Amino acid sequence: MEDLLLNPAAVALAPSPGSAAFNAGNNAWREHHAEVALAHYVGACTLDPVLVHAHLGRARCLVKLQRWMDAREAFADVLRLDTSHYSAWLEAGHLCRQMGELQQAAGAYQRAIDAAPARYEAYLGMARVLEQIGQLTLGAAAYEQAQRAALGDGSTDAAALQRLREVHQLMARYRLERGAPEAAVPSLRAALVTAEREGEGAGEDVRAEIRMDLGDALLRLGQRDAALQVLTLASAATAEATLSRLGALSFRFNLWQEGLAVLRRNVALHPTSVQARWNLAHMLAECWHMEEAEQVLQQAEALGPVSGATAMRASVAGRQGDAQTALRLYRELAEHDASYASSAAMSSLYSDRLGAREVAELHHQLFAPLGQGARARESFKRLALSGRRLRLGVVSADFHHQHPVNLFMQPMLREWDRTRIELFVYFTGVSHDEQTQLARQRAEHWVEATALNDAQLAKRIDADAIDVLLDLAGHTGQQRMRLFAQRAAPVQVTYLGYPGSTGVPNMDWMIGDAVVTPEPDDALCSERVWRLPGLVFCYAPEVDYPYPAYDDVLAQRPLTFGSFNNVPKLTQRTLTLWARVLLAVPGSRLLLKAPSFSDAGAVRLFGERLLKLGVDPARLEFRGPTGLTDMMAEYADVDIALDPVPYNGGTTSLQALWMGVPVITLEGEHFVSRMGASFMRAAHLPDWVASDDEHYLHIAVRMAADRTALLQLKRGLRAQLQARPGWDPVAHTRAMEDAFCQMASSR
Q: Fold for domain 385-538+730-745?
């Protein structure tokens, strides 16, 4: 709805004490310079305190700058001058909704309706808020009123039909935001019917926008074939912005090949557009096509400035195993834009050159400022736990297919003891599939929080009286670290998504175990450490991956070392170590599988790096991505897995073990470089854990020499794991429940 607001620049004042400043403010606003516009509007208000338009412009600038309390006061100034100002009441309602003050928003929308009952925007705002607070019947009535207002006197001219179509489109998007795709579908179908009635007034690009939303809703409902049919129709659009959005939507739903095709067509249709090429370059990088991504980025830069070029080059460097360049670029970006701090933090985990203390100090430096002005823990009022269930909130964007967080959390969601834990999931993601639906079914309360800003989400969490709030992202994508830094619950915990201390203020606990987080290293962590009695992560897949036969003939093939880790982990130190292993085990091979290796450029790059280290290319095999079931089956082609350093395999190592492939690992200095040691010790395989590079090499030579013993281990490895506590999802879930209850009791 915000895009329907009156534009302050549409009003230009005749000469008056404040008119020159007001008109200058409009010009700055038109150029998207909110700070400059604000200064001019403030000047206009000072010169002419009763200049309503200047106060309204000031309020809008303050909203844009997210100075919400100041914006509320500015709207109040407008309404003191004009108690029936429609736009001020309408936009004050929007602001209250952004702040999570839904009842106040409804009140403001009602005042806007009273001021201009023939306008549809306030009815639509009211419908949105009423549905958000669960008053669906009243919300539906307000939606109907918005439709009537859009048609005015019942006219069906092009302008009236356009307004009606916009009402349906916007209501559908609001319903998608709150996680109600089943309610969005009829609104979108009504929008399509109305667009047809508009005729030429609603062109193909307008219809494509509606179809994209409809495809989104149908995919969320599991109606994949119908969704693909609708999205195929949408691909006939020609507008640059529409095709860019379709490409991004396709990628979200793992239709990356289709998304790339759409964005290539976008470039062909708009060859002089910097943005079209940037969007293609960005998706190529996300799909691990690094060489072509760099080429398209250069093409975009040849056409004009590209604001995201440095960030993309940092991403490309990281994805090519150059952690130092990625870290340097992200740190430079973070100095001017704090949103890159998490990328810098993540890059530091891959660095060959930073020790554990340096990594910890960098995290503190990057994130300490986030805690300024945070809510005090003592301000949260919660009932005593005695006699009631603990209210656990989980914040995650990653309940979708193949994501490691989803793989580890689904069995826990299944096993929660509902007599002890009342589970709230605050889903902040943009990707939805059958795994999202499964998580939703398993959670007692599911809140679609993607569209909620941090303030709104914090209010919702507090309204739900959450005792313990669990972060599953850390500094990975779509994280909400600022929410945690400002404190949204009396006890806050980080787990699973990020392999180490976050450095974020007001994160009270991180969950580890005795190996990844030994007591002497507590000083490296900004959080208190809760050590689980067994393994920090429990891998207990719900899919039945057939166990390889491991026949005697396997002992006769050339011994194959392997790694299925993403290439950012394949640092120079890792490649050097692995090259030494191959040279020390005559006739052995190395199988490397990663998404990057669908790109010929990545294969060439890593082949050349290993060749420089003395490895004959004939001993190397590169494989690109496959579906998870096929990937698991490919572990049958690996005899021994090699763990990278310093960033160990996490999910990949546990998957290798599950499929009968033991892992040689080097125990390093901090969480991220001790995961392999934790897994192998929990599996009762301590002989596979090295203390340094020479020991790693020694283990590889020794384990490769006795093929009979290796084959015997591989045949029984899954059964051996299933008998160990670290692979028991029920015991793991009980330990987690105990941890949360004790954390809440000891706060």
A: Rossmann fold (3.40.50)
